[in-house]
């Protein structure tokens, strides 16, 4: 491939301008992150070694192509990016994609994997889930419901952790009341960490090989560690047939910054 | 490889015309999809990175070769195609092949993997099953039999999901009556989803490492998710030693469209 | 590599003539397949993608080299070949090798992997077993012994299936009488399929990570499926810690035909 | 890539001088290794085969680049290096990195993997943990507390072993008193090895798929072997769902020496 | 790489002469194989496909380099070689290395993997153990002690089998007396095979992910098979959490002969 024409570079400059307005309007973003019935996809990728042998200009153009693609899809889906390299096994980059229709996510990811940069990535794994109204909160005591409404501290939360969970058959055989009691104990254990560890739950059953994806954001990693340890000590934990495997740990990072690392 | 001769392009144009009439007559298709004793094979493939480095013309010819092969086999087998890229791990493309003789399927797949395009694919896995008359329905109450005859809504069902299942030894040790009772509870839980989630069962024991392949089609993915969750809550679910692993999720897509993505 | 000399082609032609007489005399073959104390090895191979980039002539010579090797060993070992491509995961070709001395098998396979063609194959897995006199039949009732002597239908049996089996520790802790009773129930379930599904058992304990290799040949795949399902329903099945993984499914095919596919 | 300019070599010489003062001041090092709230990361790498085909000069410059990077980060993190090749599966090199902030470790490792040498490494796995004050010692008898203060013998401890551990759900369901009793028995079994086997514990829950990383250093490998065997014989051992997998065994070796092996 | 100079060939010839005296003096060899406190390492390797594309002369020189290396280390370690190709999965070559210090083994293997030939090998796995005085024999009856002293038949024992073993937590929780009783039953079952199957035990706990490595040599493979089957039928066998996985089966072969196969 040759990228010699000045015209091409001009197009590229145009793309970079477009990318500056990439993020979806704040209101839309908030809706996708809080409404139920929204699909969340976690996709990890690993960079192959050949990428680094490309001439610098090719890499810059390749990165611009990805930015253009994300911009193009920003009306339909929300793409957030994470740097996993150095923290997670066999993964350099993670996308969290939110969409109302999973086929939109597929079209975006499929197009992404077909970009010049995408062809240098190996897909490391995909997890899909759908957001739902809380299943058990209605059965919790009022005091707990109030505590659950405490807002997390604002500020940066650089670390993100994704833990897929699969329940055992016994769990699903319990009636709603029994599961609510167990989830109340689980929630009680989690309360002290509400302020510093943000959490979002996705329901996965049937969409992949797990039942839930739990997503965490925190600035205080040791709080997160203590939260998970607290959750291990309640009875509900015994019903987890799989917890992690993989545990994905990364830092939230704008796509631009991650891609620039890859374009250096 | 060089593809310079105009004559070759002419042959290619001819193939493209042939491909337009590819799908089997509707009656044959219906028979293969509904009769018992028909073998169903699910084969996934992943595209290697070298494909994209081929000159455009080579890719177009390669795609035409595949279309010609499918056309050639259309009298004996039924091939349906799915785009898995962006939804399933380590798989870009899936074929569902129906045939009365599994060696026909083998000959087709073997020839496919030997095409110019096939040589750029890595086979990701194969699952085989055979369709059979319902095993337990005869023992169900009449009212349930009637409900089971409700037709699914027509219309497009873009999502397809494949879930292989392996029962535990205890399940097979149960007598027919006990299994029928458990399957009746299972079927009861599935009834609310009959209209929006289409389902087909294949029996696999001995043909590969699972006992069943369950295949689903739906336009409403959340209904499918709720169906699987409902099935997890009945007693029969405890006898699943394996459920998924992999769960294959994709969208139904004419071979032409998928291949054209690969020929862009 | 260049294969330009006419002399070489002449040698090649000679090899092809030799290959025509390759199969061992029928009597020897029968002995190796029926006597006890004979080692059976199942070896699967996958073709790499580079093979197809070789010039046609190189591939023809490579195939002839393999045929010559098989011919050379035909006095000591019996090699049967199967096409697995399109039916089994990650395997294109399988050899079943019978020999009185396992080191002969090793020398043959080692030489095969060193041929020009062999260097384009990735070894997918090896299973070894030894044939023994029946362990439990002596304890069966006379009527069953008679039924077991029924000959299978002659005719082609195109499908071959290999299922490795590992028993649990409890099985080996049972005494001979208890195991005989369980195997009698097992054999009773298998009797209806004696005519259409041929079966051969190899004992593997210590030679690899399984206890038995069961090998099946059949023209009627659905009978085989029903046989395995019947065997799942007897008590002995609960003592299988591993059954399959992999299940190898293929079609019997003369080496010439398989290799010619690879030489097209 | 060409490395012809004498100027470049001069820069290189400068780097080598800097590297000579690389290790962090002893006081800082001690703090990072003994304080609580410090993150420890174990990262293994495997060298690809292409590295050895680079011209010698390129390799020397590549190694100097890594040394420069380690030097640059020495104010924030502590990097220790181990040769795993020849002792551990699929791993040539291991870093143990200590940092107060895990994102510093990420930035260092990410930069390392982006160096010329790093691009020839395949990341083999990452384990993260955080140091904490002892959990159970407060509940131990005074005599045991005294014994625990015995200093290990000084001198070289060339062997290092890393064993990740995951506890079962039952362990976490035990109350503090029960766990203390079990850990007292565990500690009692370990006492005879305090002098010759140095040990450090990291808490991992939530940060990866294990609960603990245990790190050992010893000159007397058979003592270490006997220590682990002694620990297998106490009741607490039954609560280990995973112990090792992988067990990483290597020898402590200055980065310079390891890299020089790779630059020969 | 070019190997044109006659001088180089001369050096090579010299190496070949040295190699002729390679094996350690018989007395040293005997000591390393019988004393306690000696480390045994089993290392398997697989040849890559590129090796065969090297010019013949390069391969000859590469092999000579390995022979020279083994010679150079012969004063400190004992290296025995086995051909695994054709008998074991994903392994062509195995070394059994005995050393009094495991870091010597590491240095040898590390240097071996850095040779020209080593760079064409993929390391398949490493198992380490240490020889110890028998643990249970002291508690056996005198008659059994006498039987254990029977010498194995001399003569060639071409087959070698390596079976790693991991005990369950329950085994280690048994007291010495209980374990001795179980090992006495185990030994009783093994006695009939003492003459034809030679056996050596290595203790691995902590050094890798198994507890023991059992190494067998025999000329009569069916005896070995029957021995393992007999051992499966005693109570001690129920405490094996892992037995094999992998089972390594090969034939003893002088390094020269194996390497010559690789240099053809």
UniProtKB/TrEMBL annotation, chains A, B, C, D, E:
Binding site for heme b 5: 135-137, 186, 229
An MF annotation (GO) of this entry: heme binding
Signal sequence range: 1-26
EC number, UniProt record: 1.13.11.49
Binding site for heme b 4: 135-137, 186
SUPFAM superfamilies attached to this UniProt entry: Dimeric alpha+beta barrel (SSF54909)
Binding site for heme b 3: 135-137, 171, 186
Binding site for heme b 1: 135-137, 186
Binding site for heme b 2: 135-137, 167, 171, 186
A Pfam family assignment: Chlor_dismutase
Keyword check for Iron: yes
Highest rank taxon of the organism: Bacteria
Principal EC category: oxidoreductase
Record key words, sorted: Heme, Iron, Metal-binding, Oxidoreductase, Signal
Keyword Ribosomal protein included in the entry's annotation: no
Name assigned to this protein: Chlorite dismutase
């Amino acid at each position: 491939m040759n990228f010699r024409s000045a015209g091409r570079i001009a197009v590229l400059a145009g793309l970079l301008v477009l990318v500056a307005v990439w993020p979806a309007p704040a209101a839309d973003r908030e809706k996708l992150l809080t409404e139920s019935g929204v699909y969340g996809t976690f996709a990890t990728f690993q960079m192959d070694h050949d990428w680094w042998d490309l001439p610098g200009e090719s890499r810059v153009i390749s990165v611009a192509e990805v930015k253009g693609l994300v911009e193009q899809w920003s009306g339909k889906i929300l793409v957030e990016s994470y740097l996993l390299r150095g923290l997670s096994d066999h993964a350099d980059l993670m996308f969290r994609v939110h969409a109302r229709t999973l086929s939109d996510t597929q079209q975006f990811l499929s197009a992404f994997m077909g970009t010049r940069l995408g062809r240098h990535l190996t897909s490391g794994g995909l997890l899909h889930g759908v957001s739902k109204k809380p299943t058990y909160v209605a059965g919790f005591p009022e005091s707990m419901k109030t505590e659950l409404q405490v807002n997390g501290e604002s500020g940066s939360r650089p670390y993100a952790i994704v833990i897929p969970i699969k329940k055992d058959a016994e769990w699903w055989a319990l009636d709603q009341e029994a599961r609510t009691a167990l989830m109340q104990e689980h929630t009680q254990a989690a309360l002290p960490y509400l302020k510093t560890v943000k959490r979002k739950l996705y329901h996965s059953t049937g969409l992949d090989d797990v039942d839930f994806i739990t997503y965490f954001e925190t600035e205080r990693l040791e709080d997160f560690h203590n939260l998970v340890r607290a959750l291990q000590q309640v009875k509900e934990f015994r019903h987890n047939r799989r917890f992690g495997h993989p545990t994905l740990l990364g830092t939230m990072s704008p796509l631009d910054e991650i891609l620039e690392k890859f374009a250096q």
